[in-house]
């Protein structure tokens, strides 16, 4: 058990020297270049308009296009305290809570921001990559917002200076998520330890039916180790909140290294993960019912980008890219469950070896907007396309089968409206016949933001369809939560065809309490679930109606919280018609990932 803690210490030591290379604070750097008048001209270029209620929709690169091709003479980095804004550095949010927070918070270090820059001094200014870097900074979990300002050096000059301004979130966080009157879990975290981009997290659990009643999990994560854009994570858990495959409560130790494709022109992306998992009989099941197992997971993937680099005659960058990637995933059971299993569970406790290769063609640009998942923070919405072809081989449950799959995604964004389509197909070949083939299609539509002062409203519609052909060993479809009806969990209710629809309104209210903003979220869910050979509209029909109250303080690092009440007119045995749920882990950002590791359709999110 010593090795995860030794690796944690290694990550910390490895990351720290990069921050010791420069002792200047951001303000010190600005003072040193006072003679060049950059400080005054840069700050003067920042609008004084308050950001909180300003709604905008524009392409991310627009502000930088007039300076295309200029040489970047100098990059000045100025991290801002969590109580300031990047659009108006004179607008300071003062309160007793802010003053107390100041005594606990350490500003992000200049070198931490520099470790996340891929724009370089002495290089020509590329508007698209500048916009990519601004977005990438904004996606860091310890940064609320970022802006990059271009400061001309004078008429006729072929050079410019850049001012990179970031605004912290308050990096200390705590949240409580009660799952029942007798059970709850909580999270304590420091998301930016000493301003170094190092996240320390502790998750606790209490359950009166558990023995012992308390459990815990610990993790440490370093952002962009030594400026490599590689994030490293090590952790330990005994509360079943790591990567797991079994039905029992699991403990695990794990190590993970990830390098995302942080911009279209990044040369490579990849990741590795090692994990050791074992089950614990914390709920004192009889030996005849408890699955006592242990297994290990090794997961490796890497990919390279290809494509023409350059600009068209109209000055637009060629953003179309190709990405070739490969993945090997091994899941090996050191000890089997040792009990009689249901047929549906036998697949879970089997060894698995997966080898895949994937070719992806993609293009992605971004709009800046607000009020999608956030409460007024800048959000980056991707638009473009991706086409992926996947081929490989899988050994699982005694079967060795070749796999093939394809995926098409297309997203449009215009004047605040966002429309996306996704189509997927994947399956296996055995004895010259197709089996376990899955077809998935989804469409999502976010309307533009409507301003009904003092309320702001954004509506969304989501439609999805799924169908199995020749299902053999893979688990059937269900309508639980995001697969159909949110808050509905019926493990016994499955089928081979599914049609679902979701209608949601986000009503951003003017209410505010100690920095927390609120939104009212009504939602209607509908789903058909049909068995093999049954027409999809001839299957069972289910409905779900819910109303939620969502809240978040954008200056804090912990997640959006929501209280939601549900009503299901028709249910199955064990599912109540009414229920109330408290959640503290809602997604707060629009997904912006360019590519993902190659995978089968059965391990990917439901559409």
Topology, pairings included?
Elements: H1 3-19, H2 26-32, H3 38-44, E1 58-59, E2 71-80, H4 96-104, H5 110-114, H6 127-139, E3 143-152, E4 159-168, E5 172-180, E6 183-190, E7 198-207, E8 214-222, E9 231-237, E10 250-259, E11 268-279, E12 294-306, E13 321-335, H7 343-346, E14 352-369, E15 379-396, E16 399-414, E17 417-430, E18 433-446, E19 450-452, E20 455-469, E21 497-513, E22 516-530, E23 540-552, E24 560-567, E25 578-586
| N-end to C-end Cα span | 39 Å
CATH superfamily of one domain: membrane protein fhac
What summary fits the major beta sheet?
A: 22 strands, antiparallel
Task: Work out the radius of gyration.
Answer: 25 Å
Q: At the first level of CATH, what is the class of one domain?
A: Alpha Beta
**Can you tell me the CATH topology of one domain?**
Ubiquitin-like (UB roll)
Count of individual helical segments: 7
Mean pLDDT rating: 86
CATH architecture assignment of one domain: Roll
- Helical proportion? 10-25%
Q: Count the strands? A: 25
Decide which structural class fits the backbone. Answer: mainly beta
Which residues sit in consecutive blocks of at least 5 with pLDDT less than 50?
A: 1-36, 40-52
Which terms summarize this structure?
607 residues; three-stranded mixed β-sheet; 25 strands; 10% helix; Ubiquitin-like (UB roll); 7 helices; mainly beta; globular
Quick structural gist:
With 607 residues, the chain is mainly β. It contains 7 helices and 25 strands.
